[in-house]
Amino acid sequence: MPDNDSAGWEELPAAVRQGIEQHAGPVTATEAHGEGVSTSVRLILRTRGGSVFAKGTGPDADDFERDRLTLGAALAPHVAAVSPPLLWRVTADGWDITGWPLLPGRPRASLAPGSPDIPAVVGILQELAEIQAPSVPMWSTGKVWGFDDPGFGGGALVHTDPHPANFVIDGSRAWMVDFGWAMRGPAWVTSARIIPHLIDEGWPPADAERVLSVIPAWASAPPGTVSAYVADLARSFEKSYRQRPGNPHRRRWHEITRAWADHRAELS
Fold first, then answer.
1. Is 115 helix (H, G, I), strand (E, B) or coil?
2. Which CATH architecture group holds 9-101?
3. Element housing 27 (H / E)
4. 122-160 per-position pLDDT tens digit
5. pTM greater than 0.85 (yes/no)
6. CA distances from residue 7 to 22, 33, 114, 161 in whole angstroms, order as listed
7. How far apart are CA 90 and CA 92, in angstroms?
8. Where are the domains of the chain?
9. Residue from 243, 241, 115, 255 nearest 172 by CA
10. Core vs surface per residue 62-87: b (16+ CB within 10 A) or e
11. Which terminus of the chain, N or C, has less C-beta within 10 A?
């Protein structure tokens, strides 16, 4: 298996490979690409017509993993302004593989203070905040996270996992990928979800919030609702950390979210 635990091209059944080549053309070379907790195939396929990114699930995938892939494919036509289009989808022998253009540029944004990627990332977040969730079955943020608050309602399309590897940077332009974790909710939530990653890269919480203030959806977010969300997030990561106090990843995210929650408490 490749290092990222993606199934290799030759491990795919002949029917799957034939189906892919009917769309993409003969595959001349392949390489593993990226990491994904809900996909068992993440490959760059080199063809005579160009390169394609293929990701999908195998026979051992559970319904949750299949649903994430299906949602990402269903949302593709609705996020064409901020994300690459779906080229094709092949299902055979228990495998479900989607094909996407291999975007030019760097497949990870730097969110550090002073990074030249920051304006591009903020710009794409602003574009996404203007997209309404289509009539595609998906979860709502309020229901999933247990918030019964008018400030947590809304019909925007929310990317709940805007970590650095879900941005592709091409010069001054950014693209977002992996909408399989999207939800319906208030437009400010995507900005809220990226703030812990900004803090992780070295931004003080106040500055992390301030750099996103040019996004109208974030600037107009109800302060009390935001603070309640951040406090809940900090409690969640504290609980996770106390379950495994020796885990450095959990400790780090406990520290990040607690610092953000303390900042929000100072505002009230």
1. coil
2. 2-Layer Sandwich (3.30)
3. strand 27-32
4. 999 999 999 999 999 999 999 999 888 888 989 999 999
5. yes
6. 20, 11, 38, 24
7. 7
8. 9-101, 118-267
9. 115
10. eeebebbbbbbbbbbebbeebbbebe
11. C
